[in-house]
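Re-running the complex after MR caught last week's input typo. The corrected sequence lines follow. Everything else is unchanged.
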Amino acid sequence: MKKILALLLFCAVPLVFAEDINCLDCHGKDGDLPIHVDKFKNSVHSDLACTDCHVGADKVKKGEVFEEVHPDNLEGKTPQCTECHEEKVKGLAKSVHSDLSCSDCHGTIHDLTDDALLSQNKFKIHEVCSDCHDEVVEEYVNSVHGKGLIEKKNQDSPSCLDCHGDIHSVLPKDNENSPVFRGNVPQTCDKCHDNEEIMKRNGLRTKQSESYKEDFHGKMIALGLLKAATCADCHTAHNILKSSNPKSTVNKKNVPKTCGKCHKGANENYAKGNFHTSHKYKEDKWQWIYGLFFFFLTTGTMVALIIHMALDANARLREKREKKKENKE
Ligand code: HEC
Ligand code: HEC
Ligand code: HEC
Ligand code: HEC
Ligand code: HEC
Ligand code: HEC
Ligand code: HEC
Ligand code: HEC
Ligand code: HEC
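Corrected-run output:
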């Protein structure tokens, strides 16, 4: 019934179609709901027709009330993006952010000029997250990574997305496919910290990533035993600081507390020596020499012991044989 009525109405009123309508007659500077035409003309979408997004908006007639102006009733109809950004629309619908709209992060869509493009301004990404994740963002901004990226404009330093993956399909951290799922954290940090080129450029080393793989925790995590420590358990995720900083969770002063989260009764002994020691000569000469020394010391002792035992056994055997001989005689 409604449909028939609508059809009747549709035929009764002469509609003006897209080619004939200048949307800006009414949405220009002085019209109803004016849009920022200047910005729109400089935006990424300047080549688009208004109706590429506002599907149906071209069914306009003159009138005072909104429903009459746009008889298709645009109100509540979200502008369409799927035609060109299908992957993002679908990804978002399945992500933790399924309740968000594109504008929550990208701002007013008409105003997407170059300086507002998140894809070109890595050091601005955290700003859009701060509306809803203010605590995380505050920590991040003061961390080595945040300072590196935002203050030093060091493009090698991670934004939120280098650790969390594609923002249009972010998953919760307890999903196995999330890059920050416990079992995946080491690989996520290692994208950079185990990459010789990136580390060299930043005056850092790959030693920590390498030693973690040889370490008890690293081996357990690789086997899927997720109670062991990941990089983020010791360094935190968003509050990563240099070990020399007294506020760092891996500063000598704080190491007992950090290890103590899992090792009951962890004391100062946990802070003795270096945590990330490598067994490779190139990385840690003294550790390597130390290892070699102990290798020879232990194998040397073993060999000496075996020789000693063999000689001893031989001597006893000979003694026995001689005694037998003596007894026979
Ligand atoms: C004859 C004048 C007129 C023309 C031409 C016109 N509009 Fe509108 N439009 C309006 C009025 C009036 C409103 C309602 C304003 C209000 O609610 O205060 C409106 C509302 C809208 C809205 C807001 C819908 C919402 O959800 O709030 C959009 C989007 C829109 N128009 C797009 C367009 C597009 C795109 C064109 C060109 C194809 C166009 N309009 C042509 C008068 C016009
Ligand atoms: C007819 C095709 C088309 C439609 C429809 C369309 N876009 Fe785009 N969009 C583009 C093109 C082309 C670019 C520039 C190239 C690129 O980055 O993909 C772009 C770029 C963007 C960007 C760039 C962001 C950045 O940081 O670089 C955003 C955000 C965006 N579109 C959002 C939207 C939203 C939201 C909608 C729906 C309301 C929409 N687009 C509808 C074609 C379209
Ligand atoms: C939670 C925040 C967030 C939401 C919601 C969001 N985006 Fe993005 N988008 C970003 C960030 C951050 C970037 C820049 C990083 C990048 O390039 O992936 C980006 C980049 C883009 C780009 C340019 C990069 C490319 O791959 O072409 C397009 C196009 C885009 N978004 C479209 C959309 C559309 C369409 C929606 C809604 C369906 C949307 N975005 C929703 C945060 C968001
Ligand atoms: C790339 C897609 C896209 C194009 C092209 C586009 N719009 Fe929009 N428009 C939107 C989105 C999305 C909104 C909702 C507000 C927001 O998220 O920025 C919107 C909102 C509006 C509104 C409601 C008022 C407001 O500012 O919220 C009007 C009116 C409007 N658009 C008119 C136009 C006109 C006229 C054109 C052509 C000159 C146009 N739009 C081109 C995506 C688009
Ligand atoms: C408009 C609000 C809003 C914005 C903007 C926003 N988020 Fe979210 N985010 C949410 C909500 C709501 C959730 C789901 C509730 C929750 O678990 O905290 C969420 C969840 C997440 C999660 C998963 C948390 C978990 O439990 O594992 C990550 C990661 C995330 N957001 C990253 C980002 C990043 C990165 C940005 C910026 C590019 C961003 N968000 C922008 C609202 C937002
Ligand atoms: C160096 C990598 C890294 C960077 C950069 C990073 N995160 Fe995370 N994030 C993680 C890890 C790892 C976790 C999981 C922590 C855990 O399991 O407790 C996490 C968890 C989260 C969560 C879930 C809630 C929580 O605190 O556990 C949110 C929300 C989040 N991150 C948002 C962000 C935002 C927003 C940014 C940018 C401002 C960002 N992250 C930057 C690695 C990172
Ligand atoms: C996208 C690359 C990238 C990712 C991913 C990354 N980092 Fe970093 N990290 C860097 C860069 C680059 C620096 C140096 C930043 C600067 O000072 O400009 C750094 C600095 C550090 C430092 C301080 C080193 C020092 O001696 O100054 C620590 C600790 C650290 N990262 C730990 C981690 C952990 C833990 C993770 C994973 C949760 C991680 N990083 C993920 C690139 C990355
Ligand atoms: C069990 C705790 C623990 C785990 C797990 C761990 N670290 Fe560390 N990390 C430390 C401690 C403690 C230091 C302080 C220096 C030292 O003792 O070697 C440190 C130092 C570092 C440094 C040098 C920072 C500085 O300022 O001295 C980097 C970079 C680093 N770790 C990266 C990583 C990465 C990447 C991972 C995971 C692949 C990881 N760490 C896993 C405890 C840990
Ligand atoms: C997220 C929890 C967690 C944190 C934090 C953690 N560990 Fe562990 N660690 C484990 C688990 C689980 C094992 C497996 C054996 C066990 O249960 O004791 C282990 C094993 C070890 C082992 C080898 C086995 C043994 O008990 O001798 C050493 C050494 C060790 N951790 C040292 C440290 C040090 C040093 C720190 C702090 C810098 C630390 N751990 C932080 C969970 C953790």
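None of the earlier attempt is carried over here. The pocket of heme C (ligand 7) is lined by residues 144-145, 148, 152, 154, 156-158, 162-163, 185, 188-189, 191-193, 202, 204, 231-232, 235, 237, 240, 242 (CB under 6 Å). The longest helix spans residues 285-328.
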